[in-house]
Amino acid sequence: MVTENALRGCSFFSSTPETAFAPEDFIADELLMIQMAEKFSREEILPQVEAIDQQEPGLMPALIAKAGELGFCGIDTPEAYGGLGLSKNLAARILEFLSLNGSFSVTIGITSGISQVGVSLFGNEAQKKKYLPLLTSGEQIGAYCLSEPNSGSDALSMSSRAEQKDGKWVINGTKMWISNAQWATQFIVLAKVEDKVTAFIVERDFPGVSIAREEHKMGLKGSSTARVVLENAEVPLENVIWEPGKGHYIAFNALNLGRFKLASMSIGPAREALRCAAAYASDRKQFGKSLVEFELIQKKLAESAARFFAAESMIYRTGALIDTAFDYCKTLDLPEIDANRKAAEEYAIECSACKVFATEAEGFIVDEAIQTYGGYGFTEEFPVARLYRDARVSRIYEGTNEINRIFLADRFLKRVKEGKASVVASGDSFVSELAGAAFAKVGDAPGQAKVGALSDLLMLSYAEQSARLRAARFPRYGAVYDLFLNWANVQAGQAYQQVTGEGVTIPAPRSANLGEIAQAVVRAKGPLD
Amino acid sequence: MRILLPIKRVIDPYAKVKPLGDGSGIDTGNVKFDVNPFDEIAVEEAVRMKEKDPSIETIAISIGGAECEDQLRKCLAMGADKAILVESTREHDPSTIAHELKAWVEELKPDLILMGKQSTDGESNQVGQMLAALLGWPQATYASKITIEGGNIEVVRETDSGEETLTLPLPAVVTTDLRLNEPRYIALPGIIRARNKPLEKATEKSNKEPNIRYTKFQSPPARPAGRKVANVTELLAALSERGVSL
Fold it and tell me: Which residues of chain A lie closer than 8 angstroms to B191, CB-CB?
C-alpha cells in the first residue's frame, strides 16, 4: 500500500525508520538480471578495454547495440516505449554491474539514463513513441547537452538561444563536454527562449548541427566527449519538451535522478578496483608472506570495504525511496508531468548525498587499490591505473561535488522553511546529533566552507543511518559497519568544528579486526556480500 | 516432440565450499546457488533445437526444496516452455532421483531426456545412466554434438580415446558435456517473461529409499609441502624411494 509516507524526503534527519531497503532485498530473478549484467561486463567489456580506450571505430556503438538486445538500455523506461518498465532501483543496481569499466559505463549510463529521462518523464506521447524506442533498443545512442564553455556549474547562465522563425525553432549556441557526442543521433538540448530555459529534442541530422573534435581527456578515453555546435540549427516546433520555459525543471530533475544513477555507476568501478586489489594482495608475496597478511594492507582493504558498504547501503535505500515516491505520485490527482516532477524532486537531497559520498568513496578505493599494487599499479600492465584515471571525473560531472555540497544544505534549509523537514536537537547517532547542533549554531549567511561542512554532516548522517539499518539486519556486516562508524564520527567531528569553531570530543572507536575484514574481502573477491 | 530437462540446484561452482563444523554437511550460509552448469548446457541445447523447430516442447524438472524455483525460473528465462518442481526435502542419491524421474517420464512421455552428465556438487555421474536403464531406453553420455534426424538422434560423444558417434532411436537419454555449447546471455525481457510461464509444483511420485548414506563431510587433508630436487637423477631416485618405477 503506497501512502503519503512515500514522500519522506530528508526524514532520515529527524527520525529512524524501522528498516530500509538493502541490496539483499532484490529478489531471485532480479538477481539473475544483475548476474547477467556482470557477465556481460566481464565477457564483453573487460577483455576489450584497450580497444575501447583507443575508440576503435564502431566498437562502442556495437557494444551498446548488443547491450540493447539484452534489455540493458531501457531498464526503467516504460514498456510502451521499448523499455522493461522495471524499478529505478533495480535499474541502478544493474547499471552498477555494467559499470566495471568507466568508458562503457558513462556511454550506457547516458544513453539509458539522462538522455531518456527528460522525454520519458516530461515529453508528450508522440515524442516518447518516436524517440525512446530507438534508444531502449540500443540501435541509437542519446546525449544530453546542458554545459557550455562559459556555463558549467552555473548552468542557468547558458548563452544558447532559441527563437521561432518560419514555423521552426532556430537554435544557436555551443554545448560543451557532451558525452556520447560522436555516436549520438538524438540530443536533449537546453537553450533559452528569451530568458527562459527550454528543452528540445535535436536530431543529429537537423540542419545546423555539427560535432566538434573529440576532447583529449585524462580518463574515460573510450567514451566520446565533444562539443555540439548549433549554428542556426533548425528544429521542428513539436520538438520542445513539455513547454517553453520549463527546461530548468527538466534539466534539474533529470540531474536529480542522474546523480542517483551516477552514484551506482561510481561504485561499479570501485567494486572492480577492490576486487583487483584483494586478488593482488592475496597473490603477491613479499618477505615470504602475502601482502594481505600485513596490517597496513589489511587496513586499505578493510577501509575500502567499509566505505563501499556505506555507499551501497545509502544508494539502494535511496533508490527504493524514489520508486515509492513515483508509485505514490501516480495515485495523486495530478497531471502526469507534475506527478513526475514532484516524485523526482522529493529525494533530491538524498540523491546529491549519494552522488557525493559514492564518488568520494570511489576516489578513495581506486587510490588505495593503486597503493596496494605498489609500483605495478602505476603501470598500464595492470587494470587499476585505468580505473584510477577513469574515476577522477566522477567528482566533477553531474554537478561537481562542491555544487552538490552547496545544494544539499541549501535545499535542506529550504525544506525546513517549507515545513517539509526539521532540525532536531537529538539525533539517533553521534553524527546526527552533531548535525543537529551544527544547524542550530550556524547563524545567518554562513560562507561556503560552513555550508559545505553542514552538507557533510547531512550526508554522513544519511550514510551512517543507512549503514546501521543494514548492519542490524545482516550481522555479517557488523565489523565493516563499526569501521565505517569510526571514520564517520571523525569526519563529522571535523565538519562540526568547521561550522561552529568549537572543539568536540569524538567517541572512542569501536574495535574492528582489520585482518578478519581483509580476509573476508579476499574470500568475497571484492566488496562483502 | 517433447524434451525433458532434469535440473539440479547446486552451490555456485566457482565458490569455495567448506564442510560444517560437525561434518553433517556443507556450509551453505551466504553461498550462492545456480543451475548445475552441465544441466544449463542441456537447456541451451534444447532451446536451440526449439529455435529450429518450434513444434518442440521443452520441460524443465527439478527435485528439491521450494528454493529450486529460482533455478527453474532461470531455465524458463533461457527459453524452456514450462517447469515442474517436485518438492522434496528428504535425502536423495542418484538412484532415488532416477526413480523419481522415471515416474515423471511415464507421465510426461518425452521423446528425449537431455541432462548434465553429472552435477558439480556430488559429481556422481550416474543419474542419466540409471534412468536409461530403468526405462529400458538407449543412452548416449558425454555428448559434444547432437543432431536429430527423423526418429533418430545422432550424438557425438567424448571418450578417453577420442570421439565416438552413436545413432540412437528415440526415445533416448542423452547426457551433456562441456563442449556441447556455450549457454547464452539471458536477455532481461526473457527473465520478465519467465515470471508468467507455467511452473507446476508437485509431490514425489516415487518412494525409493537411497542406497547411499552420507555419513561425514570433511575437507581433504592439506597437502604437505613439496621437496625440491637438484636434477633428474635425484628425481628418479626420489620416485623409486616411493615405489614408483619407470
Answer: 29, 32-33, 36
Average of per-residue pLDDT across B211-226: 89
DSSP string of A7-26? --TTGGGT---S----GGGS
CATH no. of A143-243: 2.40.110.10
Calpha distance A21→A24 (Å, rounded)? 8
Please name the residue of chain B whose CA is at the shortest distance from the CA of residue A84: B189
Q: Amino acid identity of B31? A: V
Q: Which helix (H) or strand (E) holds A69?
A: helix A59-69
Q: Give me the total of CB pairs closer than 8 Å, taking one residue from chain A and one from chain B.
A: 42
Q: Among A71, A86, A529, select the one facing B187 at the smallest CB separation.
A: A71
The predicted structure's pLDDT at residue A425: 74
Q: Is the ipTM of this complex over 0.95?
A: no
Spatial distance between the Cα atoms of A178 and A155, rounded to a whole number of angstroms:
14
B chain contacts of residue A32, beta-carbon cutoff 8 Å: 70, 73-74, 77, 186, 191
Q: Determine the pLDDT at residue B121.
A: 92
The string over A339-370, giving b where at least 16 C-beta atoms fall within 10 Å of a residue's C-beta and e elsewhere, is bbbbbbbbbbbbbbbbbbbbbbbbbbbbbbbb
Domains of chain A, by residue range, sit at 23-141, 143-243
Q: Output the nine-digit C-alpha cell for A418.
A: 517549507
Count, residues in chain B: 246
Check residue A4 and give its pLDDT: 63
Q: Per-residue pLDDT for B56 more than 60?
A: yes
Picking from B31, B68, B78, B185 by the largest number of A CB atoms within 10 A of its own CB, the best residue to mutate is: B185
Q: Which residues contact B225 (CB under 8 A, 6 or more apart)?
A: none
Q: Based on the residue annotation, tell me whether A234 is a catalytic residue of this protein.
A: no
The answer to whether A2 and A408 are in contact (CB under 8 A) is no
- Architecture (CATH level 2) of domain A23-141: Orthogonal Bundle (1.10)
Q: Give how far B240 is from chain A: nearest CA, Å.
A: 32
Tell which residue, A61, A60, A394, has the closest CA to residue A222.
Answer: A60
Using the Cα atoms of residue A390, residue A394, residue A395 and residue A397 in order, give the sign of their dihedral.
positive
Q: What DSSP line would sit under B186-198, residue for residue?
A: PPHHHHHHHTTS-
Do A93 and A23 touch, CB atoms closer than 8 A?
yes
Sign (positive/negative) of CA torsion A314, A364, A308, A362? positive
User: Active-site residue among A272, A346, A398, A464?
Assistant: A398
Instruction: Find which of A24, A30, A32, A40 to mutate to test the B interface (most B CBs within 10 Å of its CB).
Output: A32
- Which residue of chain B comes nearest to A68, CA vs CA? B187
Return d(Cα B35, Cα B218) in angstroms, integer.
24
A190: helix, coil or strand?
A: strand
Regions of chain A with pLDDT less than 70: 1-4
Instruction: From chain A, pick out residues whose CB is under 8 angstroms from the CB of B185.
Output: 36, 39-40, 70
Per-residue model confidence (pLDDT) at position A1: 45
